[in-house]
Amino acid sequence: MQNHSAPSLGTHLFLRPDSPCVKPDYWWVYQGDPAYFEFLLPCLLDLVHQAMLKLAPVTVACGGIAEGGVAFNRRFIMRDGWVQSQPVGDDLCQVLCPEGPADPEVGVAGFRDWEGRLVAAVLHHTGHPVSLFGTNTVTASWPGAWVREFRELVDHRCIVMVVNGCCGNINVFNTIEPDEPRDDATIGRRLSRAGAKVLGKLNFEASTVVDFRARRLELSFGSISAQIGTEGMARARALLKREPEARWATGSRTALDIEWLFAAAILDLDRRLQPGSTYS
Questions:
Q1: For 191, what's the count of Cα atoms within 13 Å in the CB-facing half-sphere?
Q2: Cα–Cα dist 6/276, whole Å
């Protein structure tokens, strides 16, 4: 699961440790906190150990339902042919249509023991957990709220996990209706109601066989310079030439200025993503 409001694991997409734009002193710009890794690894190993101790036979069933009011594509094709992310205010008058789709499915996979109790569930809905993005708050966001609501619905002992899908440009903030309540609790309740409808229709069978498929997709990276444009690339180069040292956000020594960071990221991506390179 991806979460913009929790410490990251590994390096980030935009910058790498070998970036010429960022000094080693600013390691926190291109990777998570090593101290968090040291804390997290024993926790993960303990979870695996606990799970192995609790292995038990179960019956499995899964299903889904469409819920179109939670997540939305944040990118729009404008009337001048350009694409804009999360237009607001007067820019909404220039919106032609969403650039792409959103996935409306609320998926539920349930696991019941021989006594008929739902002992575990995997829930799925595609969307970014960004309710408190831009703050210094660590939160499970709407997936955490959904887990809490779902457990109250079925059994507080049920082990529930949320998978938030291929959420590249799918956001729970509705740009078209910005005044709609989008807090975690509201989203959690809405998804839980949808999940309850799915749960009521699941058909658990003792003969269920769990299978899986795996396929590796190699996706060609687009050209950063083509996306940003000649003027945008020139501005990024000029900014880094004028200010090679990382620029702090105004009044802060805890965050870098977003304009400087984006310029560094653009040039670093352009350096690394050569024609023909793929992501898989």
A1: 33
A2: 33
Paired sense of beta strands 83-85 and 170-171, if any: unpaired
pTM for the model: 0.81
Task: Report the amino acid identity of residue 172.
Answer: V
Could you read off the pLDDT of 13-29 as tens digits, one per residue? 667 778 888 777 777 77
Cβ–Cβ < 8 Å for 86, 175: yes
Give residue-wise pLDDT tens across range 202-216.
999 877 777 889 998
Distances (CA, A) of 33 to 2, 27, 38, 245: 17, 8, 9, 22
